[in-house]
Amino acid sequence: MTPSTSKTVTIASLYRYPVKGLSPESRHEAVLERDGYFPHDRLFAIENGPSGFDPGRPAHEPKIKFLMLMRHEALARLATRYEPATGVLTIAQEGRVAVEADLAAPEGRRAVEAFMAGYLPDALRGEPRLLAAPEGFRFTDSPRGYVSLLNLASVAALEDMTGVPVDPLRFRANLHLTGLAPWAELDLVGRVLNGPDGVVLRVIKRTERCAATNVDPATGIRDLTIPRTLDRNLGHTDCGVYAEVLAGGRIAAGDDVVLADA
Fold first, then answer.
1. Which of 13, 146, 195, 220 fits a disulfide with 77 by CB distance 3.0 to 4.6 angstroms?
2. Left (φ > 0), alpha (ψ -120 to 50) or beta: where does 53 sit?
3. pTM for this model (two decimals)
4. What are 243's strand-pairing partners?
């Protein structure tokens, strides 16, 4: 799989995940900043018992220290929405609003924590605590997980392997791309994507997949074995890549971006 020197691919859709482990929010467009993360992505995490996270000296912590889909598939049955302008997080359960909380206020954070304590009592190792990412930090799975990219052709290839539909949202990526051959994204490390508004992304690493992808994002049922399927068919568990933002600007669904050598 050797990529050509220059190729145009398309951004099919954009997503953010304001709270680690909770539901996606589709975006038509986003403004990326140099050396930044996808806007309002992984701003919060819910600590599963004491994690040792220090907001004064933020450092990457393993995802097992937080509530997350890899172990807590029931999170997928919650529909959540975060409004950056107001700081309000809404959590709906079975179609009804269960929590509407201002995450900037102590009482708002306590409301979310109390809901999670009641929702996942058997999963908790201690009191749940909602953490907010300090400036310049995010609760990403990877220490270098600035912007995550998913090749939809690779997802289609996974459907052929499993024999059933595979929802791309299982992979919790920020940008869904079309125009690449299946698995071609895995050979893009070190290459750049140039967007129409001056955006430049450099692919920095492959994304190794965990058991979170086994969970159907619509039902919360653990119904597939994605990492095992990848390993059995390809000899690895990678699907998608991470990129860093070399130059900022606006990106939108439907934008063509040019893939070129770094």
1. 220
2. beta
3. 0.95
4. 147, 203
